[in-house]
Each structure stands twice: as C-alpha cells, then as structure tokens.
Design brief:
alpha/beta, four-stranded mixed beta sheet, 3 helices, 8 strands, 32% strand
C-alpha cells in the first residue's frame, strides 16, 4: 500500500489499563493504519511513558489534566516514512496538530476532543478553528479528526438504545 495515507480516528475511552492499551495498539498495527488520532486517552504527563513503551512508533500527545478524563494523541506507525515538520498541543488534553511531509506533499492533521457541554463545545470549536489556522502550515491539505461530541439525532446520545423504542 505504498503511497496511501491511511488515517483513523477513535475515541478510546481510556488507555490506562495495560491489557486494553496493548490490545488496541496491536489492532492498529494489524490494520496497517499510518496515522491514528485518539481521543479520551486519559493519558497524563505522569503515565505517558506507558503508551510510549507499548507503541512501536511515534507518539504525540496533548496530555490530560486527569487520568479519568480528556487527553488526545496522534500515533504514527514505525514504518511510516514521513518527515516531521513540527507539532503543537494545548495543555487541556483537547487539541494537537501535526505538520509533516509525505511523498513530497505537506500535510497538517489536527486531532480534537470537544467538550460534551453544548455551550462549552460551541466556544471550543470557535477557538479550535482559530488555533488550527494559526498552527497548520497547509490548510489546503488539512485533515481534522477527533471526537466533536456532536450528534445528528437525540437517540445517538442515549446510553441504552433499547429504551428509545
């Protein structure tokens, strides 16, 4: 699959459990995904080393303020032949942007984890747009991924879909 840029985005609902983290990372590896954006990692500065040790590739993190909420990261496969230009993240565990070149093309990829509160989410998305415009070096080859905590239908927010009937 030379030349294909494969990107996935997944809300992992925490990666502090060793078995869950290793199973998830093995799944990514088996799928041959070049770049994986993950949200709700619960990865903090103090437990970041566990993720770095378990992943056989590059890890870029926006660390969570707590080991029970937030956090987002971008994982790059070890055999993905790219050139890192730069990366930037916030200190809230909600935004990270990676600028890189691949096969002569420059890309910017932003991973976002929006708040689930309607008012906070609206303000976050307004600020995230400005932040991306400030930090992305190629808006023409920009990929925005993540968990925007937005649904099209109220039923999609329900925890137990059997109650909707």
């Amino acid at each position: 699959m030379t030349g294909e840029l494969q990107i996935a985005t997944i809300n992992v609902r925490g990666l502090n459990d060793s078995n869950k983290r290793k199973t998830f990372l093995k799944w990514i590896e088996n799928k041959h995904i070049n770049i994986t954006c993950i949200q709700e990692t619960f990865i903090t500065e103090t437990n970041l080393e566990k993720l770095q040790d378990d992943w056989n590739g590059d890890v870029f993190v926006s660390a969570a303020p707590s080991s029970h909420s937030r956090g987002c990261a971008i994982l790059i496969r070890k055999d993905f032949d790219y050139h890192l230009i730069n990366h930037t993240s916030d200190n809230e565990g909600r935004k990270i942007i990676l600028n890189f070149s691949y096969l002569g093309q420059t890309y910017s990829i932003a991973c976002l984890y929006a708040p689930n509160n309607d008012n906070h989410r609206k303000e976050f998305l307004i600020q995230a747009k400005k932040w991306i415009e400030q930090h992305a070096i190629n808006l023409n080859s920009l990929v925005v991924c993540g968990d925007l905590n937005t649904t099209l239908y109220p039923i999609d927010r329900m925890q137990d879909h059997t109650k909707a009937a």
